[in-house]
Design goal:
Largest sheet: none
Order of helices and strands: HHHHHHHHHHH
Helix content: over 70%
Structural class: mainly alpha
Number of helices: 11
Number of domains: 2
Number of strands: 0
């Protein structure tokens, strides 16, 4: 199966790289001119005022500061140093580490780019989607339990996939924002009073890298557990069930996979918190989770709008055949939900007893 998100992210990533490089090269000459003027004033002050008038020239201190000024001035000559030693290596480290922790067992890093990362994550997520597809493919109008069970199993993993993509976009944006203003932060390194701004920018970059890596850890752990519970399922090579999927829906394995999906949401939301605590940057998962929740709400509204034309048909059935048919459907749905509730309660009691034991 082709990578669904690779094309969109490849275009976004290309534009982000071009914009960051153009912004750096546009801002660097202005910062370099201002920095050079300040260094000239600083040199005149030390040589003229302290050296000639006061006779108090501190040569070691002046040479240390001068070495830092020269290094900063050289870096500001162009984007080559920053691009080759900070920007590209940082992104490759983020992609490579995440690919290693997502794949279980790890197959190495085939492509260190963002496209390679997306391909690896999507390949692992599709293992869960294949199970759901197999359940829904064997469902029909008379087996609504399988259909509802498949859709219910799909929801947490769609959210997990979405929040991982949101974290990846957040990491790319952190690199984009810091790189666009990187000349200013590089100039801030030369002065003790402003060196904290450069350190804060470095923490933001580190936070972006670690957020994606920790999200990869959560994704890899989730997929590993899902593989354990789906290893014995009777599925064929084309992704369909070889037997009756009704035996799997509402079973212990089914509720285990569903529970792991919701636990994985918690793990992914904690990824940003862990990254912020390590990097020392103030950040959290609120923005990413809000974006994913808004997207899923939009999908729900579109679904409701698409099903709106079916309302007259349901009303017509009620008028022509009375409430008996609708009551029968309601009783069947209630029975299915009650059975699911009992099985879920039994599973939770077993899990609780095992954890407590």
């Amino acid at each position: 199966m082709d990578c669904v998100t690779c094309g969109m992210f490849r275009q976004f990533d290309t534009v982000a790289n071009q914009y960051a490089l153009q912004a750096f090269e546009a801002l660097a000459p202005w910062v370099r001119n201002g920095f050079t003027a300040f260094v000239g004033a600083w040199l005149a002050f030390h040589l003229g005022w302290r050296g000639v008038l006061q006779g108090n020239l501190r040569l070691p201190e002046m040479m240390n500061a001068g070495a830092v000024f020269v290094a900063v001035a050289v870096i500001l000559q162009g984007s080559t140093f920053y691009w080759s030693w900070i920007y590209l290596p940082g992104r490759e480290v983020m992609s490579g580490l995440t690919q290693i922790v997502v794949s279980s067992p790890s197959a190495g890093i085939g492509d260190p780019s963002m496209t390679g990362l997306l391909s690896t994550v999507e390949r692992e997520v599709m293992r869960v989607f294949a199970v759901v597809q197999g359940i829904i493919a064997e469902s029909n109008f008379y087996e609504l339990v399988n259909l509802v069970g498949g859709i219910l199993l799909l929801l947490p993993y769609v959210f997990v996939w979405g929040i991982f993509l949101a974290f990846l976009l957040e990491g790319i944006f952190k690199f984009l924002g810091i790189s666009a203003l990187a000349p200013i932060f590089i100039a801030c390194i030369a002065f003790k009073a402003t060196r904290g701004f450069a350190m804060s920018a470095a923490r933001i970059l580190l936070s972006g890298i670690l957020t994606v890596v920790f999200a990869g850890v959560a994704m890899g752990f989730t997929i590993t557990i899902v593989k354990t519970y789906t290893a014995d399922l009777p599925m064929s090579t084309d992704g369909t069930f070889a037997g009756d999927p009704s035996a799997f829906v509402l079973s212990r394995e089914y509720f285990s996979i569903l529970l792991i999906g919701f636990i994985s949401i918690l793990f992914h939301l904690k990824a940003a918190t862990l990254a912020s605590n390590i990097a020392g940057a103030s950040d959290g998962p609120g923005a990413a989770s809000a974006v994913v929740a808004a997207g899923m709400a939009g999908v729900g509204l579109l679904k409701a709008a698409a099903l709106a034309p079916a309302r007259p048909v349901i009303d017509n059935v009620r008028r022509r055949y009375g409430e008996a048919v609708m009551d029968g459907v309601s009783r069947a749905a209630s029975s299915a939900l009650s059975a699911a509730g009992r099985r879920a309660g039994t599973l939770m009691e077993r899990l609780t007893s095992r954890i407590g034991g």
